Amino acid sequence: MNISFNNTIVDFGDSNNVTQQHRRNGKLQSCEPCRKSKLRCDHVIPACGRCVKRRRVEKCVYHPAPLTQTRNSSSRRLPSPASSSAVVVPNVIESVEITVHDQLQRVPSGLIQSSIHLPPRARAVSAPVALEDRRGSTAKDNPGFLGLTSYSAVFEADLENLGVSTFELRARDSVETIPLSSETILRGCKILSIFKDSLMVNRFINKFQEVSDNSGEAVIFPIVRQWLKDLWTYHRDTLRDQNPAAISRLCERIWRNTQSPLNYDGNTTAKKYASLTSGHNLRWEVVGLILTDIGLAAQSTDPLDDIFREHNTTREAISKRTYEAAQSCLSFCRDSESRDDLFLWFLNETCWLTSSVKGSSSYAAYQQTGEMINAMLAMGFQQEIKADSRTPFFIAELRKRNRISVYGQEVALASMLGRPCRLSHRYTSLELPLDLTDAEIFSEGEQLRAALAKLDSDGWRVPSEWNRTTYMRANMLHAPRREDIVDISLGNYSTEEIVVRVAQIRERYAADWARAPEMIRVARETPAGKSTSIVHALYMNVVRHGYLANELLLQQVLIRKLGTSADELIKFARLIFKDIMALSGRHEMLKEYRMDFIWLLAAHGLRSAAILAVELYKQEQLPVYPANPRLPRAETIRELSIFVDRLSAIEDSGMHSFTEQGRRVINCILDKILAPPRPPPAAMATPATADAASTTAADGPPLMQIQHGTTFGDFEGINFGELDASINFGNDADFMHWLDTMDWEKQGVPGISGSGSTGF
Q1: Distance of alpha carbon 528 from its chain centroid, rounded?
Q2: The Zn(2)-C6 fungal-type domain covers which part of the protein (predicted)?
């Protein structure tokens, strides 16, 4: 049988076409692709049948001494990522486009070389899937930052006093070999398949940058744009074609890069840093960050937006796919024991995506926030951060940004869940990043100096204007005081200690606000108007509600622990609720800022709405309806009804279970308030009494001026002490605990069962 391929005729029936070269064991020699793939070869020349079928005739070579091929290797030890003191040394990566001649003289194209010493290994170019003998190296034995009470501190202090260098005592990275199984490579290939549609990726990244005011919280957007540019420049064809062999080689390359420490010094620019982590140096952290931004863009977009229809997907599908892919990238980084700025940036943005997909109350979100805190502490970023010969200016600024971002997220989560803060301002330097935009941080030279000249001595921009860094700095006016309030709420303090601590909180709060720019102080006192852009309105809302929420929580603590009046609590709850209703009512919120819309309703709105609903219910139960009630009845009922309707829009969010529980309870309270009162059993015996009660209900004040001890609706025999206590919740966890423990079925409230609810 003759087969013609690339002008080469191979006769499989002629035994003379079989190679005459033998191995030392006497068997015929296999061609290089079959040998490296560990597949059976029929030894036909000039090309074996397997290579002909795979259209790899040009690769089918019988090397006379395959084990004598040279390999480039380096035993040079690389420094720890945490030190970041070495001169930039780019990884040596073999090109995937090599000729047959080059293949005979150099390492096979499938072999990805990095700046580490690896034992000899080989892989066939034609192999579609990675083999089980693939290996990588990772840096392992560095425990990270060690403080003054660590086991090594005493040695370092004493030896330094004696003039002895302690460099050798410090933990260094060692090289270990870990297997890269075919399953691992396949997982990576599945992740990279998302990048097949470059248009879709670019559109979602652009959308995310638009809704984020072209400014990132964890990583600046100019770096993300550089990553995307290099991704398409170097790998567009590979990602588009999704050829199994090429994708597996790219996947292995990304693994080698991720396992190699990232090296830079104080002179490294942001643009140079971006190139060190993309293109041929692409890492799983970068892949994961891009995927996370795609997922966040999908979560922020209206499910009916044209972008989903045009790319034949849905909001739920792309959110789930990018979330799972980002989690896989995170797992790869853990396996490689990544511990650098890239990993922290990735963790930060992944926490946002997890909270959006799974819900802020989920254990997954709580666990990932804890991992982010642990990573930051292990890298020593709780200490003073400054630019020096080892740390570039932009890295120092982004470390400060991420530090206050991590701290702000933890304090917000702790107050919402009623749990202790896992990161405290008592042990963390909260030096603020400079009030610079992403473009200014990415800049260098004269442009950077001009941007720095616009700042005052405290790092605020002059004249003041809103950007993401401005709002992050403003948020730090509230976060430490919020932590102090949570501490009082959860701690075991005497009455005298509580009074002293509350006074200290107010004193520190006043001192912090006195140093804030006028623009920030005005935003605290005045809600954003309808003419304010939605992005700036959200920035201003963070400032205003940070202050109001702290006052609300403080009042709850005082009521619960000191028994003070609830007047101030109702006042702050109404202010927050009105702001939430005004901001969430803007049409842009649900269409383009869904994540912010959900967070506003769930984190701020539901707390204040619950307080107002319970207070209104108590107000309706008074024996004599007050002439000047705390809450205007009609207005409060109307606003609560609209709020409940907006909560129903949160159906495909991780916060749905929590908001649905609150929605049902508020609905139940409204139903009881609006339902006509049930007449007393004795009055039901005579029609005349029933008619009189009906007339009184129609003509009298709302819900009648119910006499003390009279039943109300289905709440016959209810102990309102539980409802009285509900107004004194110190946090959302207390409120949800009340929802869980209230036996609504026993009290006759239809459709509500505390035993089946989920705590928050």
Answers
A1: 27
A2: 30-62
Q: Which of 23-27, 85-89, 495-499, 579-583 has the weakest average pLDDT?
A: 85-89
Q: How far apart are CA 441 and CA 395, in angstroms?
A: 9
Q: Give CA–CA dist 455/437, Å, rounded.
A: 12
The secondary structure of 140-158 as a DSSP string is: --------TTSTTHHHHHH
Give whole-number Cα distances, 639 to 484, 574, 594, in Å: 32, 11, 21
For 254, the token pair is 């990304």
Residue 751 is classified by DSSP as T
Give the Å distances, CA to CA, from 702 to 307, 574, 622, 719, 727: 50, 21, 11, 22, 22
Q: Which two tokens stand for residue 758?
A: 């989920």
Measured CA distances, 335 to 145, 180, 186, 255, 322 (Å): 20, 10, 16, 10, 20
CA dihedral sign, ordered 471, 473, 474, 478: positive
Could you tell me if 408 and 476 are in contact, meaning their C-beta atoms sit under 8 angstroms apart? yes
Answer with the residue of higher pLDDT: 172 or 153: 153
Sorted by where each begins, the domain ranges of the chain are 2-68
What does the pLDDT look like over 30-45, one tens digit per residue?
888 888 888 888 888 7
First vs last Cα of the chain: how many Å apart?
73
Report the C-alpha gap between 613 and 516 in whole angstroms: 35
User: In this structure, are residues 635 and 665 in contact, taking their beta carbons and an 8 Å threshold?
Assistant: no
How much is the pTM?
0.71
Q: Quick check: 112 and 256 in contact, CB under 8 A?
A: yes
Asked if residue 609 lies in contact with residue 643, where contact means CB atoms within 8 angstroms, the answer is yes
Residue with tokens 């005082």: 558
Q: Specify whether the CB–CB gap between 684 and 690 falls below 8 A.
A: yes
Count of CA atoms in the C-beta half-sphere (13 A) of 125 = 25
Q: How far apart are CA 473 and CA 476, in angstroms?
A: 5
Looking at residue 585, its amino acid is G
What is the DSSP-derived secondary structure letter of residue 605? I
Distance CA 232, CA 235 (A): 5
Query: Could you give the CA distance from residue 696 to residue 173 in angstroms, rounded to a whole number?
Result: 83
